[in-house]
Design brief:
The chain is an alpha/beta fold. Helices cover about 35% and strands about 25% of the residues. It has two domains: about 5-180 and about 305-385, 3-Layer(aba) Sandwich (Aminopeptidase); about 185-295, 2-Layer Sandwich (Alpha-Beta Plaits), CATH 3.30.70. The structure holds zinc ion (ZN) (2 copies).
């Protein structure tokens, strides 16, 4: 049973929800409109229980099957938050809020899981309970961790949990997954460089902060290329260099660098952070400056798919799409579903939406044509894991 016919009928409705959410993007935990819209729809569908305020602004609904002899509950999770990006799609349903947009397709994830919830509440052809989980703050803020800390897993008795992300890097309708480490651990860092400001015409009486900061950027390139086993994936990116002045004739007193580390191995991560610390300290010192290195936000852990659950996802994907790539390369992107997979068995899959602007691009727009495929995947997975 590949694409469910019911989703051909619901496609227009689900597309309208998706575009409504797209037009009203909300960031991190500040999702009052989206959370209320989700909860209202779940109540309209006749879900057995709708709980709001899990992980601050997350929403969870329980849908019981015709029978519950298995006593089992599985969790299906969508993320609901948007990004601080100025939208440039020109779409009729484009963001109505300047500087915020759904550029990662979480509007599509939310709409597809709502569609699946409606179907599951109508049909209930399973033995046990499905928990549909709508999580805030995936794009920074660790909303998945907040929901886990709020007791998500034990409170609803969830024994398996599943996630899905759309991918503009995969052909339309194609699923891909891998067992084990799939998404990287994410650290964000800040380096503050302190020199001695002064007149640009008299550099010999200053400590040139801009030069020291630039040298640190260059020196950090050797952490991956010279200090790391070439067989081990690792990224160190410096993404920002700011000083307190944009004058052409002033040597600034302070400079701030920002960047990120992506890793798959906790030992390598620790070594890398130590190495960055040493490079920052000693490079600054060699220019007569000082520098401090610190981590910002809490790091996202490596997202690791559990083996059996990976196979369950692949089987459901094959059922819907005919094939499923189970050996897609790891991605150096991060995903806070990692926290849910630390707390519970489960797996996370990608669904191709075809060529187009990449995730987090101002022209990205979720491809609504994929909705029946994503919805069918969710209900196939739920029914197969809770087969009577
Ligand atoms: Zn994203
Ligand atoms: Zn995303």
């Amino acid at each position: 049973m590949p694409i469910r016919n019911r989703f051909a009928e619901l496609h227009t409705d689900i597309t309208a929800w998706r575009r409504d959410i797209h037009a009203h993007p909300e960031l991190q935990y500040d999702t009052p409109r989206t959370s209320a819209l989700v909860a209202e729809k779940l109540r309209d569908f006749g879900c057995d229980e709708v709980v709001t305020g899990i992980g601050r602004t997350g929403v969870v609904a329980l849908i019981h099957g015709k029978t519950r002899t298995s006593g089992k509950t599985i969790g299906l999770r969508a993320d609901i938050d948007a990004l601080p990006i100025l939208e440039a799609t020109g779409a009729p349903h484009a963001s109505t809020i300047q500087g915020k947009m759904h550029a990662c397709g979480h509007d599509g994830h939310t709409a597809m899981l709502l569609g699946a919830a409606q179907y599951l509440a109508e049909t209930r052809n399973f033995d046990g309970t499905v928990a549909v989980i709508f999580q805030p703050a995936e794009e920074g803020g660790a909303g998945a961790e907040a929901m886990v800390q709020d007791g998500l897993i034990p409170r609803f008795g969830i024994s398996e949990i599943y996630g899905l992300h759309n991918s503009p890097y995969l052909p339309f309708g194609q699923f891909a997954i891998r067992e084990g480490a799939f998404y990287a651990a994410v650290d964000s860092f800040k380096i503050q460089v302190h020199g001695k400001g002064g007149h640009a015409a008299r550099p010999h009486v200053t400590v040139d902060t801009t030069l020291a900061a630039s040298a640190i950027v260059m020196a950090l390139q050797s952490v991956v290329s010279r200090n790391t086993d070439p067989q081990q994936p690792l990224v160190v990116s410096v993404t920002s260099l700011q000083t307190e002045t944009d004058a052409f004739n002033v040597i600034p007193e302070h400079a701030t660098l920002r960047g990120t580390v992506r890793s798959f191995d906790m030992e390598l991560r620790a070594q890398t952070l130590d190495r960055i610390q040493a490079v920052v300290d000693l490079t600054a010192q060699s220019y007569g400056a000082t520098a401090t290195f610190s981590l910002e936000e809490e790091p996202y852990p490596v997202m690791t798919n559990h083996p059996d659950e990976t196979q369950h996802c692949a089987a459901a994907a094959r059922n819907v799409a005919g094939v499923c790539d189970t050996d897609i390369p790891r991605t150096t992107g991060g995903e806070d579903f990692a926290y849910m997979l630390q707390a519970c068995k489960g797996a996370y899959i990608q669904l191709g939406v075809g060529d187009g602007p990449g995730l987090h691009h101002p022209e990205y727009d979720f491809n609504d044509e994929v909705i029946p495929i994503g919805c069918s995947y969710w209900v196939t997975l739920a029914e197969s894991r809770l087969a009577p």
